[in-house]
Amino acid sequence: MLRIGLLTSGGDCQALNATMRGIVKTIYRNAKEPVEVYGFEDGYQGLIYERFRLMDNRDFSGLLTVGGTILGTSRTPFKLLDTPESDGINKVEAMKHTYAKLKLDCLFMLGGNGSTKTANRLSEEGLNVIALPKTIDNDTWGTDLTFGFASSVEVATRCIDEIHTTANSHGRVFVIEIMGHKVGWIPLYAGVAGGADVILIPEIPYDMDNVCRVIEERDKAGSRFTIVVVAEGAISKEEAALSKKEYKKLVAARTSPSIAYDIAAEIDRRTGREIRVAIPGHTQRGGDPDAQDRIFATQCGVEAALGCLEGEFGFMVAQRKGKMCRVPLKEVAGKLKLVDPKSDLVREARALGISFGDE
Ligand code: F6P
């Protein structure tokens, strides 16, 4: 008997179900023995508290096109892993206990950065774990791509497209806030795809003088509107010079709902232009996976399952330069993949006249 466990952890994305379908279909089709599938509910919480469903391949049929996660998800912060829950439970011991009790041969964990650190810890504790790179943010180190990213770029791009027409009609400046606290992959890709005039991302600190200059120059050139795309975690040059502690204090002291409102207020104060804010928010994680995500999710699921059937564990499935590969969990855990300010796309965007607010 081959017993496998599945869980989805952290913020959801559009391609989680498609990935699980890829795993389970491949296991059933290629396993040389009967299979039992345990689906843990709400991420690591299900593993900690023994909340699971005994499932089979029929439960994963028809899921290729369905967003969200049929297992539910939750955040179990890695930094609190060794802090007992309010009921006193030791999370790591509880997870090991559930794994042993169900006699699992492998745990498939679909998650982002924090979740992969926990997966690595469980692997170090002796569990057979395989991680799959889920996140709309595309910030998982060790892989060129994560599933969820392509679909969220689609949603964010559609938002920018729709704002374009109304911005033009009214001759307004729009600040559009796109997800990405620590990295700017979605704002960069959606900004280029949607034809933004300014893109502000955490990796390239901005100066408001430069942002306002773009707006004024566009005005002078006869453009009726300006689209400023801002990442949730974009930072100014002054903020970038602060220590981590000072910056956290500054963010905590913010009274506006989010950064887009601060930027809009500053543009208003300096230019007097009519300005509006648009925030697609969690729609960027919602809806169904696009075609690219369905393909990549399927590839990840299949490769992870093949690894399990070959008896290889303790890795994350990845794609590098178009090739699927297996990266040891200990190499991935705790590292972020940032946008390289010198990358081709940034260089090309600049050549096209898109400003990153830094010059
Ligand atoms: O990690 C994915 C992500 O969507 C980030 O882009 C965003 O900043 C965050 O999650 C939002 O988290 P929550 O769903 O907990 O509000």
UniProtKB/TrEMBL annotation:
Q: What is the annotated localization of this protein? A: Cytoplasm
User: What Pfam families does this protein map onto?
Assistant: PFK (PF00365)
GO terms (molecular function) for this protein are:
6-phosphofructokinase activity; AMP binding; ATP binding; diphosphate-fructose-6-phosphate 1-phosphotransferase activity; fructose-6-phosphate binding; identical protein binding; metal ion binding; monosaccharide binding
PROSITE patterns xref list: PHOSPHOFRUCTOKINASE (PS00433)
- Annotated site, Important for substrate specificity, chain positions: 114
Q: What pathway is it annotated to?
A: Carbohydrate degradation; glycolysis; D-glyceraldehyde 3-phosphate and glycerone phosphate from D-glucose: step 3/4
State the active site: 137 (proton acceptor)
What InterPro entries does the database record attribute to this sequence?
Answer: ATP_PFK, ATP_PFK_prok-type, Phosphofructokinase_CS, Phosphofructokinase_dom, Phosphofructokinase_III, PKF_sf
- Boundaries of every Phosphofructokinase domain copy: 3-305
Q: What class of enzyme is it?
A: transferase
Q: Which family does it belong to?
A: Belongs to the phosphofructokinase type A (PFKA) family. Mixed-substrate PFK group III subfamily.
Identify this protein by name.
ATP-dependent 6-phosphofructokinase
